[in-house]
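Re: folding output
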Amino acid sequence: MSYTVIEVEKRIGISSRKLRFWLDKGLFPFVESDSHGVRYFAQSDMEWARWIDWLRQCGMSLKEIKTYAEACGGGIKTAPMRKAMLQDTHTKLNAQIKVLQEISEKLEMKIGLYEEMIEKGVDTFNPQSGDYKTCKKQCQEGNAKKSKKLD
């Protein structure tokens, strides 16, 4: 069974605009068109669209995805290269996750400071407030509390 771009959008939730863009970039080597230029996706093409979306979300460039897709046609002899590409993407993704985790911890600390600030009724994060200068001390205390929790 084959599906049009609109049908693929409805089935997998990737916008038709994005799918057409990827088609124009050559990321779907096996999608066929009829005499009117209507493109038809097989089930395997829909699965590949999901992979493209995941790889893009991981930060892989369209050029890298195209290289990966073209390498797939090379069979088992290109498997080491494809594996290396995915490993590189995975390494980069893990580095992003680490950064996001650090940011999340800082946000949790800041939210905690806001909870204390609201409880005390003192706006220490407002530069217009006379209490603003105490923020530096509170932030350092918040960081020290976090460091102790992480130990």
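--- second protein (sequence, then structure) ---
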Amino acid sequence: MMDMGLNNKTALVTGSTKGIGKAIAVELAKEGVNVLINGRNHEEVERTVNEIKSDFPATSPQNATADIVDIGQREALFKKYPNIDILVNNMGIYEIMQYEDAHDEVWEKYFRTNVLAANGLSKFYLPKMLKNDYGRIIFIASEEAIMPSGQMPQYAVTKTMLLSLSKSLSKLTRGTEVTVNTIMPGPTLSENVQQIIDGIYADEDMSFSEKEKQFMAANLPQSEIQRFIRPFEIGRLAAFVCSPHASAFKGSPIRMDGGMVPTIF
């Protein structure tokens, strides 16, 4: 197995009590990283910290409970953890929504949550990384960033913005060992998605993999893997992008979409 060269680094992963965020935190901890677990619910964060501490006792996971959309709570987080090596901007909200239902308040909420929170963290930590001549910032976007389905316009726009922000910030890292990149996962099997799939076929006597296969064929025929991506797969990729082995990735939109996007670029 490849040594990622991340032992004893410190990483803040936002929205890391479940789903892709938790998987990234776990894969980083596996590589000896001290992960700062973030979420709004103190008990959930504490539970995740204890789980990681128990699975990877050589690391020091910490509780970084905060609603990072709230500027005051963000400032408190900066005071508590002024220095990190890795920032993974994973936290975000999404829902299927008709365009006509997306009023200005909805757009503003999505912009504040999916873009401004990540930007606020990047703005604080990037200068410190540049000063140390080492650091990694990753934005978690989505295939919706480059291939909007039309089912969640208010979400897709924010994910496209992250690609642009990542590219702009990357320009500031020229000549340094700091990188800023975006990972675009395709449909991923979060706890939420698993519940939805189980709910759709609640009356059927089928294994989960059969349900998954049927759902993919009916709803996501363009996926070339015909299954949901597992969160740990995104986690592994993120761990590599965070590693010193990945320093040539600069401002890159990195797709792990299961073949959802039909175009070359």
